[in-house]
């Protein structure tokens, strides 16, 4: 190693994820300049490390999303498979078994291949998905096994065989084989192959859904995000069952017609399957035998007494209207078969009137048993999903009923009952029964802090005292804020009551007023809106190191004008945060923050006549208490100024008149002197009368000046 290298950094390749975060961190570039990476000893180890980085976490968000996609595609895949059962058709004119046109074959094969691709992706994902070691589940989540060999062994010993059997393209191969083999036996071979292939593959394709569904619900808890989506999913299962039952009913209807033909040709030389396939040339003898009125008539058993009559049973409804004929459009076949399956599933097979044929009876028994099992599951799931949407409504109804009984038992007056009902209604409209505080309290500390910061930080910074507060203290205050709701005309704080909390308004309008202790002729009011706060007496009380342990007394009454949603900070929490705030910010900065230039904004016309020292003494932080006191103080000062001005004017007028009356020799006549004397007397009398009228008003104003709010003593140091 060179001398310039100061350190060696060892990387834990086992803990690295597939996407390195170090490459995207610009702050770590300087650190990487001096590091020495130790290369693996062998190429095999390097390949092993690279392969382990590609292992997927079974509880990761990426795999959870893909698992939900796989569940949906599995259900869609088993809904596509019944389309192959509609390929065999009956040619009624030629009395033979045929295959449908190319369009249905192409649609069925393409859709089946498309959904099989998702099965292949699922197999690839399983070979790359780790698992939790059972021995490590004693504490916590457990250790993730990321060894590819162990993962492959576990998958090969569990569901690998089922997955392989599910994706083998046997229906597509059956269609290709029917095209390749000689035409005289193609329809019959295709019908038999498709029937047994679909039945055989339906078992593994259906069984694979259950463990995949359990895996999704185990990792994410739910398959659908909303209750209505869950109900719709269960309804889809009901529709899927009807579609599957209808498709098999169509296939067995075709078989019943072929079985009747075999019965009519049983004792002849034309009983081989090739004679009832449309691939060979029409045989007149076969047509004459099958076209007889008594051969295979599509009649109800009650309409004939012939003992040799062939009873088609539950398949008569498909044969009589010609549903299985080759000239019927395949969409009509699918829709009518689905309708028959829906009726049978809805009635649990009770409407099925079967013949004595064992295969038909077995099919009816299968419908009844499978539908009973399906109903048991679907009814429970549907009830669970639908009740989840109304459970909170039911809880609210029970709480309201209990509240009504309690209010009646305590004989509360009607206006109090109405206020209780209004509060419950407003609380329900706001959060729909969700206990917001409980929900946030159950979250991790960091997530709870981020949510509270998002909800409350802007409101806290509306208070000038909190603008420069330390980030940790702001987070502590946000964490202690609790949401509160108030209905219209509610008294939040009353004048003269102790202030026990500070409110930060989110929504609504409040009116705050004071009468200066109930004095006659004094009234001051403000309107508070979203973003404002009240209960600021607590802030002064909490910031003063020498404050009394008793809570401050409110100087204002705060009443809601509309419904109000706010956050509350209790006196105990505010006192704790304020004590820490004093330690982080020096006294001068705190005092500078505490004083604001509100008078410059509210009373600009007075700024020229009032000294800056006076402004600094009366303009405290944006508090209604200080603003009210400042306004009253300015009004009193302005009246004193007007009084002094009136006195100066009166004194100047008296001096001028006295000088005019005592003038010697300058008067032109004795009459002018007498007139001037009378004029001065009248003027002095009017000025004295004006003085007497103004003096009592001034004396009334000065005593009405409210008490100056207390100001914290920042010079005193806490012990």
UniProtKB/TrEMBL annotation:
Residues passing through the membrane, by range: 69-91, 103-125, 159-181, 231-252, 361-380
UniProt superkingdom: Eukaryota
Major subcellular location class: nucleus
Ranges where the record places region Disordered: 15-52, 692-719
UniProt KW keywords: Ion channel, Ion transport, Ligand-gated ion channel, Membrane, Nucleus, Transmembrane, Transmembrane helix, Transport
Single GO term (MF): transmembrane transporter binding
Residues in Cyclic nucleotide-binding domain copies: 465-548
A Pfam family the protein falls into: Ion_trans
Entry's localization field: Nucleus membrane
Biased composition (Basic and acidic residues): 708-719
Gene Ontology, cellular component aspect: nuclear membrane
The keyword Ligase is assigned to this record: no
Matching InterPro entries: cNMP-bd_dom, cNMP-bd_dom_sf, Ion_trans_dom, RmlC-like_jellyroll
Similarity annotation: Belongs to the cyclic nucleotide-gated cation channel (TC 1.A.1.5) family.
Function: Cyclic nucleotide-gated channel involved in the establishment of both rhizobial and mycorrhizal associations. Required for full activation of nuclear-localized Ca(2+) oscillations by Nod and Myc factors. Simultaneous activation of the K(+)-permeable channel DMI1 and the Ca(2+) channel CNGC15 can give rise to sustained Ca(2+) oscillations. May function during fertilization in both female and male gametophytic Ca(2+) signaling.
Xref: PANTHER family: CYCLIC NUCLEOTIDE-GATED ION CHANNEL 15-RELATED-RELATED, CYCLIC NUCLEOTIDE-GATED ION CHANNEL-LIKE PROTEIN
Quaternary structure note: Interacts (via N-terminus) with DMI1 (via c-terminus). The Nod factor has no effect on this interaction, implying that the complex is maintained after activation.
Protein's name in the database: Cyclic nucleotide-binding domain-containing protein
